[in-house]
Amino acid sequence: MQNIVTKSNMSEWVKYAFNKCIIQEGEDTSVQTKVNGLNKMYGFNPKRLEQCRLLITEIVSNLSESFSTEHGDSFLDVWKYKDDDYWTKDIKVCEQLVVLAIGLGLMEYTFEPGMWKFLPNNGTPIIRVCHK
User: Fold this and answer.
1) What was the pLDDT predicted at 2?
2) What is the pLDDT of residues 43-66, one digit of tens each?
3) Nearest-angstrom CA–CA distance, 82 and 80
4) CA dihedral 9, 13, 14, 15 (to 10 degrees)
5) With left for phi above 0 and alpha for psi between -120 and 50, is residue 34 left, alpha or beta?
6) Cross-strand bridge partners of residue 35
7) How many CB atoms lie within 10 A of CB 15?
8) Residue spans of beta strands (DSSP E) within the chain
9) Which of 48, 121, 61 is nearest to 97 (CA)?
10) Which residue has the higher pLDDT, 93 or 115?
């Protein structure tokens, strides 16, 4: 599944993966991958999340290079494509990508959510790509 993601379809792929992986109403929640979003916790079906690993990895690889540095970058810049143009204007889709990537161990917050209030831009979290 290489090179199916482009700047023009990246938003749709994120929405697809998010809707596929999110725990559905009535689904067993005893085994789920929980991820802190900006203002709430998300639960993902671990098997479906893993099925989307290659897709999410490709999407993350198209983000601005600033997320691959040791210090990462602001959540407010998640919508920047690697060429510094924007791949979406929807902050909700940006959050969906971040929580999917964190759930897969592909990205991480540089500070725990309890520390966000001390960060610039009204507590906007800093995110970076994990290099394991």
Assistant:
1) 58
2) 999 999 999 999 999 999 999 999
3) 7
4) 100
5) beta
6) 42
7) 16
8) 33-36, 41-44, 73-74, 107-109, 126-129
9) 61
10) 93
Residue 81's SS3 state is strand
Q: Give Cβ neighbours of residue 43 (< 8 Å, ≥ 6 apart).
A: 22, 23, 29, 32, 33, 34, 35
Residue with tokens 């602001």: 74
Structure token pair of residue 68: 């691959």
Residues 117 and 43: their CA atoms lie apart, in Å, by 24
The candidate with the shortest Cα–Cα distance to 75, out of 41, 98, 54, 93, is 98
Long-range contacts of 9-14 (CB under 8 A, 24+ apart): 10/59, 10/62, 10/81, 10/87, 10/88, 11/87, 11/88, 11/90, 11/93, 13/55, 13/59, 14/59, 14/88, 14/93, 14/96, 14/97, 14/100
Structure tokens at 102: 């964190």
The number of CA neighbours under 13 Å toward the Cβ of 76 is: 7
Looking at residue 1, what is its pLDDT?
A: 47
